[in-house]
Each structure stands twice: as C-alpha cells, then as structure tokens.
Amino acid sequence: MRSGDGIVPVVLAWWEDARASRDALPWRGTRDPWEILLAETMLAQTPVGRAAPRYRELVARYPTAAACAEAPVGDVIRSWSGLGYNRRAVLLHAAARMIVVRHEGSVPERLEELLALPGVGPYTARAVLATAFGIEAAVVDTNVGRVLARALSGAPLGGAEAQRLADALVPRGLAREWNLALMDFGSLVCRSTRPECDACPVRAARLCTWREHGADADPSRGSAGVTARQSRFAGSDRQGRGRIVEAARRAPVAADEVAVVAGWPDDSERAGRVVSALLADGVLVAREDGSLALP
Q: CA-based angle 223:227:231, to the nearest 5?
C-alpha cells in the first residue's frame, strides 16, 4: 500500500486548474459553519445539480441555527420539498435546536460535539471542521473512499483503515483545500463508472496502485465510504413516502386516503407500514381525527 505522500501535490496541482467550475457551487463561497452544515445536510443524499438551486433559498430562510430552531419543524419540512429524505429536515431542525441550547447558537468546532448533533455523522462533522474551521480533519465520502481504495490501497478498505489513510494525507494548513480537491478529483476524474484513467495525473505519475499492478477488479467496490447503487425508486417505499409527505405539505391526509395517495390503492398494509415509519421519524403527526399532517 502506498503512503500517499506523492499524491498530495499531484492532486492539488490538478485542482488549481479544475477548481473554477466547482468554486461556482454556492456553498463553496462560504466559511460560515451553519451554512456549511446546511449544505452538507442537503448534499448527504441529494445530487449536486438538485441541491445547488435550492441552497441560497434555504440559507435566506434559515440564515442561522437560531432561525431554523425558531421555525416550526413542519415549516422546515415544507422548505425541504424536492430534496428527498424528509427525515433529514427533521434532524436539521433538531440539530439547530441543540446548537442553540447547548452552544449558544454557534456550531461547535470539536468533533465529539458535532457528532452529538442529531443527524450529523463522521463525514458531515469532519467536513464542517475542515471547510468551515480549517481544522486538519479528513472527510471520507464516496468519492474520497474510491480514490483511497484505487490509488493507495489497491484493495477494498475497511472504515477505520480508510479514515486513517485520509487523516494521514491532510497537508498542514490546507485542510479545506485538500478535502475539496480530493472530493472533486474523485467526482470528476476517478469516477465510479468510466474513470478517466487515460487523463489521470495520478496514473501519469505512476502513483495509482490499481493501475500500476494491473488488477482487473475495481478495489473501490465494497470499500468503506463508497456507496452502492441505490435500489430502484419507482414503486419503492421511498416513492410512497414521498407522495404521502408531498400531499401533507398541501393539506392533512385523511386516514382512508393514505393508500391511494401513496400509489398503492390495493395495499393498505404497506401504506400503514410506511406511515408508521414516517410517524416514528417525526416527519408526520396523527391528528385527533386520524388524519396525517406535518408537525
């Protein structure tokens, strides 16, 4: 396994030429910890192309953690329309309330305190530390995990090993720049499908373990941080959940209409199971008349 020392200057040099288009992303122009936390929550499972047009709208509506905490959670869920996984809106609201109560409205800059916030996992916490505070923390998202497995390991990586490798790469004083560069490199060059190996500066410098050793199997498959292809959306419980919540954004949904609204008119049992999950997640509440509404 390579140490990775040689990869850092190569990727940073590549990024200097490639970063202009990525710096146009709206969240790249801020160092505000709350705005970055909001962006990372949006991006957790939402494509960049869908999140970018909505980012400024949400920042304007909830410019601080206090503004988000003061809003009814139902309003935050309404604002989340089109961004998928409404539970993330509930968790963002809960995190904002904790930031206000425990941290006087300021996003904390210690890893353990960030991880204690609802909905904040290792990637999001380290992304806030590195890109907002400039603290030497390494993020491991699906793009970074893929580069680490291919270029350094040549074999699938476990979670702890991937994080250790990522931590060792962060150059002193360049935490923000390096993390963004490595994520962009994985997104634009070392892609999941059809990676641009012929144009890859890491391969050209003979620093890619995967390509140097000629292995056929992609070592990023099953590696830590590398997400698997999501199951089909059409006809899924996720689609039914989205339909129910979207209807509840407009008006309460009567109990006897839920299965039809979900798209399963002949499967009330399935609709009931999905509703139970939405209630448990705090995305919906049951009113006295049995109808479902946003909190």
A: 130
| pLDDT profile of the chain (295 residues), mean per 10 | 77 92 89 97 88 94 98 96 91 98 97 97 95 95 93 90 94 95 95 93 94 82 68 81 94 95 94 95 94 95
DSSP-derived 3-state class of residue 7: helix
Neighbours of 183 (CB within 10 A): 21
Could you give the CA distance from residue 244 to residue 186 in angstroms, rounded to a whole number?
36
CA distances from 249 to 83, 97, 254 (A): 14, 22, 13
User: 40, 112, 113, 269: which is the annotated catalytic residue?
Assistant: 40
* Angstrom distance (rounded) from CA 225 to CA 65: 28
212 is catalytic: no
Write phi, then psi, for 293 (nearest 5 degrees). Answer: -145, 165
CB 84, CB 236: distance < 8 Å: no
Domains defined for the chain, CATH in brackets: 1-229 (1.10.340.30), 237-293 (1.10.10)
Length of the chain, in residues: 295
Q: Quick check: 253 and 292 in contact, CB under 8 A? A: yes
pTM score, whole prediction:
0.89
Cα separation, 157 vs 1, in Å, equals: 11
